[in-house]
Write a structure and sequence with these properties.
single chain; alpha+beta; seven-stranded antiparallel beta sheet; globular; disordered C terminus
Length: 504
């Protein structure tokens, strides 16, 4: 386990308070994601309470040449908030400041540690547009950093679309703040939009000003059983065209439903079993009639009361848990153009099992967004073979290897499938401009330079596990020890060694 210099620990404690610098066993819960797949280690978890303390902590870490992983509610699925190689964890859960709702603008300014559910509950007449299953623990800072999507993107867009302003801290401790909430403001670069989806690599979000939307009224939820994915996709597209108040169009299949009925105690949703299920939700005075016209004489369950709607939603919202009942899952999140969605959804399982015949594959997701979640419980080693099978297939369909979860550690080595050399070089230049020291989340997205690696090497050269991560080609999606890891600590003097060069 990497240790920090005692003087640095004392300095950090002087900023945030001794009780908010966690070390030893107290850090365990911050070093693993909720799936259990990504596990790391950290010499310390630092828990600031406001923007000023975040700035002071980052300035200390940057000056010491020690990398930092910002962490919100730790609900991510790609390892982007896990200290995989001994970084300090900067936990933002104490940033819980909430200003009163601006009723004139229908906006609210909140700290990064406020949960999405707390924002949604801030006003009885208003709601947060983003609605995700982990809303009770997912935080605003993390949702911005990953540009979270969820179940209402069809109606309200992802987290980036909710932003009306942002406050963030750069790696050197400098604070940038633009929280006026203006809908029209063309006074330079829109850095809040840039930071949305940046996965903690450019700056640390500390406060956000968010738009709020009118709370849905006269909401109706319908769950429809269908004979196949072609019919399901066609019905979803029809609903998008013909139901003005449509909020969500979600799908799952019998594969995941069977697991949930066996392990989570869910009852069959309909009298007859179906191969695929489409969940539609709409709001407004004509929602029930509009949905009924689209569904026609197909078998369906309809909920109008809060309890009935919640029951129907449970079949979709609990699908992320299904794979976990069978083992430690690989959670892939991809999207394709609408014209390719049926092929992706129909063939994804076969593509995966061609690489691992015993793998269990569960698919579900946001059909109207072209988004498919592919949860895999591998039978063979989780050594990249499953990603190597599915992600190139997605790319061949003109799709994205990450629809809403981000790149993180899970998909880092497959980024060239989605982004050109020139784009990745641009990412690196942007990152270098924001964080020239390479302090923030060094294992995510495009690398910076050999100088950054060498600084980290000098700090951690006594730690064999830390040294292993310095190979630019190292597979961060696996926590197993590999024979290809370097056997000695490389420094900036190894410029002629191909293992010491960075890749974009």
């Amino acid at each position: 386990m990497t240790t920090l210099p005692p003087a640095l620990l004392r300095s950090l404690a002087a900023v945030v308070g001794e009780s908010h610098v966690l070390t030893g066993d107290a850090t365990a819960g911050f070093a693993v994601d909720w799936t259990g797949r990504f596990r790391g280690r950290t010499p310390a978890v630092v828990r600031p309470r406001d923007t000023a303390e975040v700035g002071a902590v980052l300035a200390l870490c940057t000056d010491a040449g020690i990398p930092v992983v910002p962490q919100g509610g730790n609900t991510g699925l790609v390892g982007g908030g896990v200290p995989l190689q001994g970084e300090i964890v900067l936990s933002l859960t104490r940033l819980k400041q909430r200003e009163p709702v601006d009723q004139e603008a229908s906006q609210i300014t909140v700290g990064a540690g406020v949960t999405l559910q707390q924002v949604a509950d801030a006003d009885p007449a208003l709601d947060l547009g983003v609605f995700i299953a982990s809303r009770d623990s997912a935080t605003v800072g993390g949702a911005v950093a990953t540009n979270a999507g969820g179940l209402r993107v069809l109606r309200f867009g992802p987290m980036r679309a909710q932003l009306r302003g942002l406050e963030a801290v750069l790696a050197d401790g400098a604070v940038v703040s633009h929280l006026a909430g203006l809908v029209k403001d063309n006074t330079g670069y829109d850095y809040p939009s840039l930071l949305a989806g940046s996965e903690g690599t450019l700056a640390v979000v500390t406060r956000a000003r968010l738009r709020l939307v009118p709370r849905l009224r006269n909401t109706v939820t319908a769950l429809v059983g269908l004979g196949g994915l072609d019919e399901l996709h066609a019905l979803a597209r029809q609903a998008v065209r013909e139901v003005p108040g449509l909020v969500s169009a979600e799908f799952f299949t019998s594969a995941g439903l069977d697991i949930l009925m066996a392990h989570a105690g869910l009852a069959p949703p309909l009298a007859r079993t179906s191969r695929a299920y489409l969940l539609l939700e709409a709001s407004g005075p004509g929602a029930l009639e509009e949905l009924a016209d689209v569904i026609g004489d197909r078998e369906a369950a309809v909920g109008e009361s809060a309890a009935d709607r919640a029951r129907l939603w449970s079949y979709r919202e609990r699908h992320p848990e299904a794979a976990g009942f069978l083992g430690v899952p690989i959670k892939l999140d991809v999207s394709v153009p609408a014209a390719q969605w049926v092929r992706l959804a129909s063939e994804a399982a076969a593509v995966v099992t061609a690489a691992d015949a015993g793998a269990k594959v569960i698919t579900f997701g946001h059909v109207a967004d072209g988004n498919l979640h592919v949860n895999i419980v591998p039978a063979e080693a989780a050594d990249g073979r499953h990603e190597n099978a599915l992600l190139p297939f997605v790319a061949s369909l003109g799709g994205s290897i990450s629809a809403e979860h981000g790149i993180g550690a899970l998909k880092a080595q497959w980024l060239p499938l989605a982004r050109s050399d020139e784009e990745r070089a641009l990412f690196a230049r942007i990152r270098s401009a924001f964080d020239p020291s390479g302090t923030l989340n060094p294992n995510v997205l495009a690398r910076l330079s050999d100088k950054v690696v060498s600084r980290w090497t000098r700090f951690n050269c006594h730690d064999r596990e830390a040294r292993s991560c310095l190979r630019p080609g190292y597979d961060f999606s696996s926590t197993s020890t590999r024979s290809t890891r370097p056997s000695s600590c490389r420094t900036s003097n190894d410029a002629d060694d191909p293992e010491s060069t960075s890749r974009p």
